[in-house]
# Entry
Amino acid sequence: MRAFPAGLVFVVLTTLTISRAGSPLSPPAHPLPDKGGIILTFDDRNFSEWLAALPLFDQYGVKATFFISGHIDQPALDAALELKKHGHAIGCHSIHHLSAVKYSSQHSAEDYLQKEILPQLTAFKAAGIVPTSFAYPMSSNNTATDAVLLKIFRHVRTGAGITPGKRISGKNAFFIATDQIAAHGCLYGKGIDYAPDKEDRSYEQIDEALARATRKNEIIVLYAHRIATAGKGHHISPAALEHIFNTAKKLQLPFYTLDQLP
Ligand SMILES: [Zn+2]
# Structure
């Protein structure tokens, strides 16, 4: 094969670098949010319940991020496109909902990316959806999985709990200063399924945490699964969501999707 002149290689590389930074192919620049806020996220494949809750989200102007697991088949695409139409963001949650840490230790983090993540990303992109974030199944992550996934996503979300008797507002891992958000690839979310019926997610706890985010100009990440009043599987009721929406409204604390953040 004929070798290319060094000058031509330089021009091609330079052009590639410029187009990555500035073309419509690369994600648009995302300015820092000017105030603290809430990143509200939902996981798995609870499509009918999520879509049924759209009027509630619309009523309060709340935008959330929905992390979809499994193959990106027609039901997943239909739901994702409808959620997008209402201003929500779509993220990846892996094909088989396995532990990223366990899978990576048995194979490799690169393998996890190839088998569990890229097929979702490819299918979403074919439908015009470009996820910028990923949520770890079962909050299973470590620095090796973060490093590989953050080459693809701007943010990955995992979860953390609080010690019994402690306050959400006292755990710094849940709160990120707005001007630090771009530097925090991995975000620690607080679970709110079953709110307000558990001590670590009572309305008092949640309201106090949102007040801290407002006062200190911080971003707090929350996660849930189904949107329902009862039944099998982790869920939060529409009434509990509405409580959170009302608290945020009183505090003038905005909601951000992960696609909106740098
Ligand atoms: Zn999940």
Summary: The pocket of zinc ion is lined by residues 43-44, 69, 93, 97, 137 (CB under 6 Å). The chain has one domain: 32-260. The mean pLDDT is 91. The domain at 32-260 is CATH 3.20.20.370 (TIM Barrel).
